[in-house]
């Protein structure tokens, strides 16, 4: 249950981040279908890759966490771009790739700051205990 709730929250955050990035960059085209498929694929790819990155981060300390997060975001976007039809989800140009990667990464970092607390609060409330 906790994992499913985390997946829904992550997808919601990624969907908002994709909309913001698409509004900011002309070379990031996004249809409604692309937004939906892209959000789902990106969320799935990044959640699967997160475990790999977490084990590397534990092994190589904080610099790996920073670089790993950026790499994870870029790989997630790359896979999403490859597996989503071009007319629905398309990133073009080095500047667009860098900017969208940074926007989605920063948004994900901010989301991660509240994610665990929100999950714990919902879990505690569903068990009838006060959060905190």
From TrEMBL:
Record-annotated membrane-spanning stretches: 32-52, 64-82, 94-111
Record keywords, A-Z: Membrane, Transmembrane, Transmembrane helix
Name the record gives this protein: Polyferredoxin
Originating species: Jiangella mangrovi
């Amino acid at each position: 249950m906790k994992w499913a709730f985390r997946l829904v929250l992550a997808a919601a955050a990624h969907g908002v981040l994709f909309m913001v990035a698409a509004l900011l960059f002309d070379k990031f085209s996004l249809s409604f279908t692309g937004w939906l498929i892209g959000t789902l694929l990106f969320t799935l790819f990044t959640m699967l890759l997160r475990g790999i990155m977490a084990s590397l981060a534990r092994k190589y300390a904080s610099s790996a966490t920073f670089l790993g997060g950026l790499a994870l975001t870029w790989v997630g976007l790359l896979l999403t771009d490859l597996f989503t039809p071009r007319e629905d989800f398309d990133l073009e140009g080095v500047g667009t790739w860098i900017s969208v990667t940074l926007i989605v990464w920063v948004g994900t970092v901010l989301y991660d700051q509240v994610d665990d607390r929100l999950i714990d609060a919902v879990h505690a409330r569903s068990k009838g205990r006060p959060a905190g």
